[in-house]
From TrEMBL:
Uppermost EC category: transferase
PANTHER family: SULFURTRANSFERASE (PTHR11364:SF27), THIOSULFATE SULFERTANSFERASE (PTHR11364)
Protein name, UniProt field: Sulfurtransferase
Keywords: Repeat, Transferase
Classification via InterPro entries: Rhodanese-like_dom (IPR001763), Rhodanese-like_dom_sf (IPR036873), TST/MPST-like (IPR045078)
Known EC number: 2.8.1.-
Organism encoding this protein: Nonomuraea spiralis
Gene3D superfamilies: Rhodanese-like domain (3.40.250.10)
Amino acid sequence: MSALITPAELAALPEASVLDVRWRLGGPPGVELYHEGHLAGAVFCDVDADLAAPPGAGGRHPLPDAAGFQRAMRALGVCDGRTVVVYDDAGSTTAARAWWALRYFGHRSVRVLDGGLAAWAEAGLPLTKDEPEIRPGDFTARPGGMPTLTADEAAALATEGVLLDARAAERYRGEVEPVDPVAGHVPGAVSAPTTDNVGPGGRFLAPAALRERFAALGVEEGVAVGAYCGSGVTAAHEVLALELAGLPAALYVGSWSNWVADPSRPVATG
């Protein structure tokens, strides 16, 4: 089963739990967008509160503990035996974090609405302002379902395999840094902006095109690969694109915000 789902497929899947994962770096709050209109039956999932622990030395969006994630998902109605579909309005860059987190904590059936809200609208399907009644779910969090990297493991992978930097190229080069206190990238990492994983309309490139893209970056079968970004949100999108290409990858959840929390870690620019 593909990790992606089309609007038509979702419309024919009435038993799915649907999570609206809209979010903006610096705002506005995604819940305000949710209230303006969302898929029928969808529940708002907060990237900051539901998909991450409080920020700190572990980064701006560190991995929540199993108990906290389980509690959040049950409150959103997520069940072990029901498919979860996640969507956003930004090329799946934030919905992918929900996909990854659910997969990491052991949910076996998670799909991303390819093209998100725009694809839904293009298919002529309606939105609503009505909020569903949420029945508490029975999801049980079982951590370890997806590979992760620590800072030291990411540093090693940058020399022994391929470590992809999913941020915009100018942030990788250290020309700008709108959020974190230090600009640059992990030495040895390869610039691979996650926005290049999608085409017009925010839909993912075909698997063959994704394989070609990653091959040009040094990622091939048998090569260990990982991804990071600013805080482990858009890097999950990179991991999803790699999975679609048939290339399993690890996520450095703490990402750049965790890397620069330790001033002894080296920083590369250019």
